[in-house]
Specification:
The protein has ten helices and 14 strands. The chain is of the alpha/beta class.
């Protein structure tokens, strides 16, 4: 069981001595995990703190109402809780906080958490207009006993792992690469709502996902191999993200999942998760519904072949 304590940066809560890092940590990918692991290794008996922001700073700074994130805040905290971190301090980021200059921001951190070690990412910016970075911090704290460290870029297969790169990969449906950068399957969360029953008429009933977080990035339109998770159970499934062009000229985006070999599974009103594993194909407009039915049958065959290949690769 995690011993992580979740606190608000605005709380009147102080720590005697700590090792800390700060950032948005969107996606909490393998680069973030490397930074946190390094901080933990260097911390000794110091309390280990992650300072993060909610909402994402760019949503406020760029004034983007529909700014997409890889992970919602609660899921990000769940991921952090799996690390040996003592505290996660959340800054409720808004326009007023964004105007706090780098000096005042760091002084607040010093007063609250008395850090002996501060580690930040190589591209981390903080304070008004992003004036604060590793070099600023090194200079600002040069006459103290605080150790200021920078975490170098994390490189996998000659590519620097960054949240922005992962979002680009999600938008083109490169799920396998996304998962290698995240260190886990990409995930969507939501509740199953009643649809029009078109899948059931085809012989492939689907569960329609209503996302909890409308800001979470959705993979490109297409068909995917996923696992649907409800409670402690996982079901191999096929997911269609799209506008159902065979039925409609124009329709809202839907996320529909067919669970294999579980035709009587009642999911309406249930909280579920979708773990994404692979992209199967683009969405296609068929002239006849029978053609769509035939394609779904082939999609399922392809999904099973992918699953078999994955299992053989693990042997």
């Amino acid at each position: 069981m995690s011993t992580l304590k979740k606190i608000s940066f605005s709380d009147d809560f102080k720590i005697n001595s700590s090792a800390l890092t700060l950032g948005n940590f969107d996606g909490f990918h393998i680069g973030h995990q490397s930074l946190v692991s390094e901080l933990i290794n260097l911390s000794g008996n110091l309390k280990k703190i992650i300072i993060t922001f909610n909402p994402h700073t760019q949503k406020i700074l760029a004034n983007i109402n529909k700014f997409n994130t890889i992970t919602n805040h609660n899921y990000k905290l769940d991921l952090i809780s799996k690390c040996d971190i003592d505290y996660v301090s959340t800054i409720n980021f808004d326009k007023n906080f964004s105007k706090l200059n780098a000096n005042d921001f760091i002084n607040l951190i010093l007063k609250k958490y008395n850090p002996k070690i501060i580690m930040i990412g190589y591209d981390s910016k903080f304070g008004y207009k992003g004036k604060g970075d590793y070099f600023y911090l090194k200079e600002y704290l040069k006459n103290t006993n605080i150790k200021v460290l920078v975490n170098n870029p994390f490189i996998l297969n000659k590519e620097i792992i960054k949240s922005s790169s992962i979002k680009d990969l999600i938008s083109i449906g490169d799920i396998k690469k996304v998962n290698s950068f995240l260190g886990r399957p990409f995930k969507l969360f939501g509740i199953i709502t009643e649809g029009r029953g078109q899948g059931r008429k085809l012989g492939y009933p689907t569960a329609n996902l209503n996302l909890h977080d409308k800001q979470q990035i959705i993979p490109k339109v297409g068909v995917y191999y996923v696992n649907l998770i409800v409670g402690s159970k996982r079901y191999m499934s096929i997911c269609n993200i799209g506008h159902k062009p065979t039925y409609y000229k124009k329709a809202d985006l839907t996320i529909e999942t067919h669970v294999l070999n579980e035709e009587n599974l009642d999911l309406y009103g249930k909280e579920v998760e979708l773990d994404f594993y692979d992209f199967i194909r683009n969405e296609i407009k068929f002239n006849k519904v029978d053609d769509l039915k035939f394609q779904i049958k082939n999609d399922i065959k392809q999904l099973k072949a992918i699953k078999l290949g994955d299992n053989n690769g693990k042997k």
